[in-house]
Specification:
The chain is mainly β. It has one domain. Strands 1, 2, 3, 4, 5, 6 and 7 form a 7-stranded mixed sheet that branches. The longest helix is centred in the N-terminal third of the chain and has 16 residues.
């Protein structure tokens, strides 16, 4: 029994050591709309950030990222209710500032087409996040 407990604790420590840790400073990105009354916009689905996917949160929930420059690949929810096809996959670059949450939406050229441009709908400050100055040598 003691060996089994030791094995479980060792495996747990190994798994937790490989997890992403977040300090007092982070940024967030979400595909939810902040301003829902804006015409020809829809939520987005974030497929990749810097080539990585499979985010552990539900669609639309904020995704934690390190502050800095990130390459994102997104797709949008179609505006037309009867639209059978998908929308375009779009890549864009985001410069995330520390302690900021970015609401990114799709702005469609035409409400009947698949083409859109990702735009920042709103930027808000994250409560409880602390901007930490870089260490000096």
């Amino acid at each position: 029994m003691r060996n089994r407990l030791t094995l479980v604790l060792a495996l747990t420590a190994t798994v937790l050591a490989g997890c992403q840790t977040w300090g007092p400073t982070w940024s967030e990105v979400t595909g939810r709309r902040f301003h829902v009354a804006t015409m020809n916009t829809s939520p987005i689905l974030i497929n990749l950030i810097d080539g990585n996917g499979a985010f552990p949160s539900a669609p639309g929930a904020p995704i934690w990222i390190e502050p800095g420059r990130h390459r994102m690949t997104v797709t949008a929810v179609p505006l037309s209710a009867g639209w059978a096809g998908g929308t375009d996959l779009v890549e864009f670059e985001l410069l995330a500032e520390p302690c900021k949450r970015y609401y990114i939406v799709a702005r469609f050229e035409n409400p009947l087409g698949p083409s859109f441009a990702p735009v920042i709908d709103e930027i808000e400050t994250i409560a409880g996040c602390q901007v930490v100055a870089p260490a000096t040598k």
